[in-house]
């Protein structure tokens, strides 16, 4: 009995630990912004109410970022005919068709487990598996199925 097709489009979202880390960095940035803002208000004599406005805007920005990372942002969007990589640094090619994938495998880059999709001509897409809100093995199995559906393809190594 063949496997049921996987849903498309399907977003592979960020892991909660990754989201918390990014929001934490934003909170640190908020502290720096408030420190600089306080120093500027003290040196220029501008009304201190500016700090309240700055704080409210910065807090709204942090909350929006947390909401966006949790509900909208994705590491990888699998579509019927290809994929799109979200805001992942060093991913390489961010959009390609499944039929363009020449070889797929796993690798460790900078001590991080990654899925590497080789596209030929030296082009590749690297997806850090720890950034996903999904078990590594389940992700690899799903990618194998998606590649097979997109073309007759050998399994991931």
Topology:
Blueprint lengths: L9 E3 L3 H29 L4 H23 L4 E3 L3 E4 L9 E3 L5 E7 L2 E9 L2 E6 L7 H15 L7
Antiparallel strand pairs: 1-2, 2-3, 3-4, 5-6, 6-7
Helix pairs in contact: 1-2
Walk me through what this model shows.
This protein is α+β, with helices and mostly antiparallel strands and 157 residues long. Helices cover 43% and strands 22% of the residues. The strands form two sheets. Strands 1-2-3-4 form a four-stranded antiparallel β-sheet, with no helix packed on it. Helix 1 packs antiparallel against helix 2. The longest helix is centred in the N-terminal third of the chain and has 29 residues.
pLDDT averaged residue by residue: 89
The N- and C-terminal alpha carbons lie at a distance of 24 Å
Spans of at least 5 consecutive residues with low confidence: none
- H/E series: EHHEEEEEEH
- Side by side, the strands of the main sheet go 1-2-3-4
* Helical content class: 40-55%
Cα-atom Rg, whole angstroms? 21 Å
Indicate the structural class: alpha+beta
Strand content: 15-25%
Number of strands: 7
Number of helices: 3
